[in-house]
Design goal:
heterotrimer, A: mainly alpha, ABC transporter involved in vitamin B12 uptake, BtuC, 72% helix, globular, C: alpha/beta, Rossmann fold, 7-stranded mixed sheet, 13 helices, 12 strands
């Protein structure tokens, strides 16, 4: 975990970030709806990747069950909306609350009982799977039969009820991603960020210098869970139907963590870059296969796996750290 | 419900649990020595199951006879994989290993899909529908044979680690990596051997499993997860623990199916895992780190 | 299935390509594929986008449905539909998120109407795109009742909802008992606990008392769709002492279940499905052999005596000589009907405009159809209401229609012979 951590965004980085944001804001005006849907997917993965990165990248706690918090956020906000008419603009608070409770419970149990490393990762999977099967039998939200939201067509964008055009959902995600980016940036500059770094690099040493390790690990888990649950609220109202095996599945957890790891674990920009690279890779492979007339199912995924294999073999710290060096964005020029 | 029902179901759970145990044994051996989390474990078993199906279709040989050649193939596969791909990752952090093995798993699942298509395949031996009746107890013949074979393979592996010089060397390597280097053991080769042995183990388990369930390319991930649960419950790196974990999971799942609604029975397995992790993180038979 | 690219349809703005400079291959692939043939001299071809799961867990069914799509254009022309259909088929890999983005892509490439997807989750996702873009979406197969209850205006479904399916199935069951003169007094209800299975189970729960079924359900056993083995489930069913097994299954689990019943020597009067896949499928027969015999499934089925069904059968045999029609007819029948409905609506609408097509679809009335049932019609929610079920019994390794009488191929047998008293 000795990977380079961050470059304090100097002038040049700030300008580039500003340009990227401007580009992302302008894109919906020029791209076609299909590309907009791909961009939405990229932003979604970037956002959940950022959320996961807080826990693993910053504080070094490996969660392989992050779909749990996404799913809880989705189901809580959707259930409030369907059963009580609570709009997601309020429901998201409840979603965060539930995710916080679950995150705190898992964190408390794990850290108090000294569960760490692979064992901690498996504990998170176990909780996610346990919840998935639980929701399969939870009739109040449709069980495995699925939970469906009414879709009323509206001509205007309604942010309170999250009903509107694809552009609205795109901008919402863009705002969430940008906000999360700023939050992470602030955290990394703060004392909390330094404590997390200390814990990530050497927990015992951190303890020795007087950092309340338990407290800051809890903070990381809970913050990460809360952020992830917001992605769930988005999913619920974007997809309008929820199935436990889809939202809580371990495939979803893997999808969440691929982006940040490929992009650059513990970096600010890594999750965003990773989401972009992986999504474009998948769509590109699909398009290439179609153009070549390859209809054999599975070929695309095999190539995807091979690409993943090569990235992790040759860029162990992810794409962003080496790319950043090339772009000359490293603050100290050394890393 | 009558007591015979519980007895029947529990015995079925014991037999299945032994096969689960053998599968998990492979994982435990690999983790115990190489310290790499083999997240493609279930996929490797699926590979062995397909090998058994193909050999059965072409040569009409019983999967139990096919066990040795399939174990040998999986051994070579595991040995090669460790040497070529995994070795550089031994010192890397867990998440890095995880992604590597997930990538390997994706390639394996979809490679199988490409070659064999999505349909379930199975091996229909002559005795597929037979069962033994002992009083009120009804034992599925296939399950009995698979469980016995699992025990035999596990015993062979125990003996290897206890008595064979290579086995002892591997154990030394697991206990004290640096020490092993100092006394001049070729650690890389031993790691590869271990990975091969673990793979052979899961190959044997695959030959038995194919008698019990139909194989599809998508089968792998569930078994990977199951193997992990078993190994953690029993104690990572403990061979006896893997078998015990297999038995526990097999029996508890079977009984949970009776008591609860069967579609929720895996909840009990995960609950068991959570309990063990919290109360005895090193597993039931694991040594404290 | 994708047609070759056509430069004139390359209408992605330059900026979008620039966003993809990070991956040149991707850019080429995304921008360079124009799936629809531009049919020269006939500007009015209706572009039909077909979305099916041709890989992943449902690959078999997606590929089967595709056959029904493939035979449609030529056969519809032969039947006198004077419309040009330009079909593009894509695979959503049994992944719901992908179903949505595939639909976006098809619509973006100019599809006037969407057909698919053999899956309720995917249908829900595609429906959103269809609704947003004002492109009619014709569902060939998907049973979750909510899809036509969510308030969509462009979604049409020529397939029964799970409660309709179960209602038909249970009613047929009563007739089945009447026809054979044997009625079980008790049953155990086993169902797979996935989207379809749970929707069906709810249907059973709601309809059972209302239909005054002649037997009692002693126990309901729901099992995991990814179940590795079903020995406990069968042991539980056997211990319930029920005379009959009522089953809502998928394919693999139905095989596991019957095999386990044989092993545990559980011999009920029969296994009857009130409406689910599995027991009439090709693989059920090849895997289980004689043990597949006599199982009964009440499902929508093709009418062997209908003229169009015979034409479909003929076209299928011609185009796919290596496949057994009976293993595909369910998927092929509904997929073909979707194409027929769309062609019919287009002929009346005389426009590729989404709204006009949707209005034409809503006014659909086609008397001659492939499947058993009344004329094809949709209610105000876009739901077809006249699809009937047939009772199929497996005989000589083939599903045969035993009820209703007008489509009967063989007389029903019940109670069924024991596992070891079969040929």
């Amino acid at each position: 975990m000795s990977g380079p951590r961050r470059a304090a965004p100097g002038g040049r980085a700030r300008v580039l970030l500003g340009l990227l944001l401007a580009l992302l804001m302008l894109l919906p005006f020029v791209v076609n709806p299909y590309l907009l849907s791909v961009l939405t997917l990229i932003l979604y993965l970037a956002y959940v990747g950022q959320a996961w990165n807080v826990m693993m990248g910053f504080a070094g706690q490996l969660s392989l069950g992050h779909s749990l918090y996404v799913g809880l956020g989705a189901y809580v906000s959707a259930a409030l909306f369907v059963h009580y008419g609570v709009p997601p603009a309020l429901g998201f608070l409840a979603a965060i609350l539930v995710a916080l409770v679950f995150g705190a419970a898992i964190g408390f149990l794990a850290f108090r009982f000294g569960v760490s490393g692979v064992y901690f990762a498996l504990l998170t999977i176990a909780f996610a799977e346990f919840t998935r099967i639980g929701f399969d039998h939870f009739d109040w939200v449709g069980g495995s039969g699925g939970f469906f939201l009414k879709v009323a067509q509206r001509d205007y964008n309604d942010l309170v009820n999250l009903r509107g055009s694809p552009e609205m959902f795109y901008y919402l995600l863009l705002a969430m991603t940008a906000g999360c980016f700023l939050l992470c940036h602030r955290l990394m500059q703060s004392r909390i960020g330094f404590y997390w770094l200390a814990i990530r690099e050497d927990q015992e040493a951190a303890q020795a210098v007087g950092i309340d390790v338990f407290r800051y690990k809890m903070l990381a888990v809970m913050l990460s869970a809360a952020l992830a649950s917001l992605a769930g609220v988005f999913t619920a109202f974007f997809n309008n139907n929820l199935f436990p095996f889809q939202i809580f599945g371990i495939e979803k957890s893997i999808e969440i963590i691929l982006g940040p790891i490929i992009g650059g674990l513990g970096t600010l920009f890594g999750p965003i870059l990773g989401a972009f690279v992986l999504t474009v890779l998948a769509e590109g492979l699909r398009g290439t296969m179609e153009a070549l007339g390859v209809v054999l199912p599975g070929v695309k995924q095999v190539f995807y796996g091979i690409c993943l294999l090569f990235v992790i073999m040759f860029l162990p710290h992810g794409i962003w750290p080496s790319l950043r060096r090339r772009l000359g964005l490293d603050s100290d020029g050394r890393r | 419900m009558p007591i015979e029902l519980y007895l029947n179901v529990a015995l079925g759970g014991v037999l299945t649990g032994l096969v689960y145990g053998l599968m998990a044994l492979g994982l435990s051996v690999i983790f115990g020595v190489v310290r790499v989390v083999n997240f493609a474990h279930g996929e490797m078993m699926t590979l062995a199951m397909y090998a058994a199906v193909m050999l059965f279709v072409y040569f009409k040989l019983d999967p139990l006879l096919l066990m040795l050649p399939i174990m040998a193939t999986l051994f070579l596969f595991g040995y090669a994989m460790q040497t070529a791909v995994i070795n550089p990752f031994i010192t890397r952090p867990e998440h890095s290993q995880f992604i590597l093995l997930v990538a390997i798993a994706i390639i394996m699942i979809n490679g199988l899909l490409m070659f064999f298509g999505p349909n379930a395949r199975n091996v229909l031996v002559d005795y597929a529908y037979d069962s033994y009746q002992i009083g009120p107890i009804l034992l599925d013949k296939v399950r009995v044979i698979a469980a016995l074979a699992a025990l035999a393979v596990a015993a062979a592996l125990f003996a290897f680690f206890r008595y064979a010089p290579t086995g002892k060397a591997i154990r030394a390597c697991a206990d004290n990596n640096r020490g092993a280097l100092v006394v001049g053991l070729n650690v890389k080769r031993l790691y590869a051997l271990t990975f091969g042995l673990g793979s052979a183990c899961v190959g044997a388990a695959g030959c038995m499993m194919v008698l019990l369930v139909d194989v599809t390319p998508m089968l792998g991930p569930t078994y990977t997860l199951l193997a992990f649960v078993i190994v953690i419950v029993g104690g990572l790196g403990s061979m006896g623990g893997a078998l015990l974990g297999g038995l526990l999971v097999g029996v508890s799942e079977a009984l949970a199916g009776l008591v609860l609604t069967p579609s929720a029975k895996s909840m009990v397995t995960f609950a068991l895992l959570i309990l063990v992790l919290l109360l005895r993180p090193q597993g039931l038979l694991g040594r404290k780190a | 299935m994708t047609s070759t690219s056509n430069k004139s349809a390359r209408r992605l703005p330059g900026v979008t390509r620039r966003t993809f400079t990070g991956s040149a291959i991707a850019a080429a692939a995304v921008a360079g594929v124009a799936p629809f043939n531009i049919v020269r001299g006939q500007a009015a071809a209706l572009k039909v986008g077909v979305i099916l799961p041709k890989s992943g867990p449902q690959a078999f069914f997606g590929q089967s449905c595709q056959r029904g799509i493939d035979i449609a254009p030529a056969l519809l022309a032969e039947m006198g539909y004077n419309v040009k259909l330009d079909v593009t088929s894509v695979d959503f890999e049994t992944n719901v998120d992908l179903a949505r983005s595939r639909a976006e892509k098809l619509v973006n490439d100019g599809a006037h109407v969407l057909i698919g997807p053999f899956d309720s989750g995917a249908a829900g996702a595609i429906a959103q795109v269809a609704e947003q873009k004002g492109v009619p979406f014709m569902i060939n197969i998907a049973a979750a009742p909510q899809i036509t209850e969510q308030g969509y205006k462009y979604v049409f479904r020529n397939f029964p909802t799970a409660p309709m399916l179960i209602g038909n199935g249970l009613s047929l069951m009563k007739e089945f008992f009447k026809a054979t003169g044997a009625t079980p007094k008790t049953a155990v209800f086993m169902h797979v606990n996935d989207t379809f299975g749970q929707a069906s189970a709810r249907g059973v729960e709601a309809l059972f008392p209302r239909l005054e079924m002649p037997f009692k359900i002693l126990e309901t056993i729901s099992y995991d769709p990814a179940a590795r083995d079903l020995s406990v489930e069968v042991a539980k069913a056997k211990a319930s002492g029920a005379e009959m097994v009522m089953l809502v299954s998928r394919l693999n689990d139905s095989i596991l279940l019957v095999r386990e019943m044989v092993k545990q020597r559980f011999e009920p009067m029969g296994i009857i499905s009130p409406g689910s896949p599995g027991m009439y499928e090709e693989q059920f027969f090849t895997t289980l052999g004689k043990f597949s015999e006599y199982c009964v499934t009440n499902v929508p089925w093709y009418n062997p005596k209908s003229e169009i069904a015979q034409k479909v059968a003929g076209a299928f045999r011609k185009q796919f000589p290596n496949d057994r029609l009976i293993g595909h007819i369910f998927n092929v029948g509904f997929s073909f009907e979707s194409m027929m409905i769309v062609a019919d609506a287009y002929q009346r609408a005389k426009s590729t405009n989404g709204q006009a097509l949707a209005e034409a679809l809503r006014a659909t009335k086609i008397d001659k159809r492939v499947m058993i049932g009344g004329a094809i019609q949709f209610n105000e929610k876009g739901q077809a209401t006249t699809i009937a079920s047939a009772a199929l019994q497996n005989r000589n390794l083939e599903p045969k229609v035993v009820l209703p009488a007008e489509a009967q191929e063989l007389k029903p047998v019940f109670p069924v012979p024991g596992w070891n008293n079969r040929g």
